[in-house]
Amino acid sequence: MSAQTQVSADERAVLDAVPGGSLVGDDWRDAGADLDVEDPSTGSTLRSVADAGPDDAMAALDAAAAAQAEWAATDTRTRSDILRATYDAILAAKDELALLITLEMGKPLTESVAEVTYGADFFRWFSEQAAHVGGTYRPAPTGGSRLLTMRQPVGPTLLITPWNFPLAMATRKVGAALAAGCTVVFKPAEQTPLTALVLGRLLRAAGLPAGVANVVVGSDAPSLIRPLMADPRLRKISFTGSTAVGSTLLGQAAQNILRSSMELGGNAPFLVFDDADVEAAVDGAMVAKMRNGGESCVAANRFLVQAGIAAEFTAGLTEQMRARVLGRGTDPDVTLGPLIDAAGRDKALALLGDAVDRGAEVVTGGGVPDRPGWFLEATVLTGVPADARITGEEVFGPVAPVTTFTDEDEAVRLANDTEFGLVGYAYTRDVGRALRIAERLETGMVGLNQGLVSNAAAPFGGVKQSGLGREGGDEGIAEYQNVKYVGLPLD
Ligand code: ADP
User: Fold this and answer.
1) 245, 296, 374: which to mutate for ligand 1, most atoms within 8 A of CB?
2) pLDDT tens digits for 331-352?
3) Which of 131, 229, 353, 484 reaches 20 to 30 Å from 291, CA-CA?
4) Cα–chain-centroid distance for residue 131?
């Protein structure tokens, strides 16, 4: 089959409507078409766009720097209204965006629709936050003078996102930065530039002035980003992606003492205690493991189940994993799409193979279907030994390793035995235990009797090697603000 015949006429129309290259100031830099965007369910090219180079990236920073003073001085009600108009515009474009997300990233269309709702919500949330930026006023404890604080935008920002949530990873950074009064150079992942380009178009259509948000799409991230990190006009980096790249960027950020927010890898434990509602735990496990096909930094990476209910939990999980239907996400029957690319599938297969070599048992799945695309069956493993790579590394795919524990102390010890600390989940009906676990988990977030923590109104982020800073909630906008203190005597 040719690439053309794998794309329907409706899909082609949506793909053709995507801008052809980076948004820099008021220009779409769409000359040339040398960045090929792949359909991970077929391996064929969906659409090609212009591949930005370092000059385009620097022009984007020029535009952001030129627009900074005026955007910072724009009254907060106007900023709020533009964010709210973007929220409305994203929802009005829901079908187009959801289809693009499914085409370039692979997840089933129902999940893409959910991502559009979730992603749009950051603009609603930050439109509400934008008009509520305040300060403080306090008498100095020693008397006499007064201590005032104000919050000011940090300045031009660089926002780098991964491919797994092409819209939502962008909106929670862009929404927060714009609400705070910062201008933006946004670089999406090279695998999923199309959704990002449409977001750029929607922002402009919603009234965002030229230069305030720039979108740079290109294949060679290091060469695009390095010169920007070295430029003293840049005042902030916010990155979501692997811990290895985050660490490299923090090294670069050290040169100019850049404000840095890092949302990095996870290795989420999912604890199920004997007193849990097992049916609810299985349902929660499916959400925590299989949302986004397991390609999420908050995906449950290790199931730790108390011995007394391990058989019942594993049987329930296995039944639901078996029911997953593999295929292209545009097919309404499909409940599990492909992994993002060959490298993503190879990594998941390597971790799976390593666990099996060390004695784990494959209860269901484990195979690669004989078809194009980067598919991997929904897989449940039991008897995974503690030294298996999968207990220490993020599998980022539909593989669920189940191990058992005997008591609460062992559960906490196993859960915390990782350098990562993004999120942990726990199922128990005992309220005291639930709170003890929430306090003892070394993570930035905890899901108690729920398998999903993402919410625009909540502070999302990790501890340990899972990162620095928070996105969403009241904390999200603060990442893009400097606090300035003013002291003055009364007489
Ligand atoms: P993943 O493994 O999920 O693809 P990465 O950390 O490799 O995560 O990529 C996340 C984002 O970081 C992408 O937008 C990618 O282009 C970008 N990126 C990768 N390497 C670098 C780098 N050296 N400097 C800046 N950005 C990078």
Assistant:
1) 245
2) 999 999 999 999 999 999 999 9
3) 353
4) 26
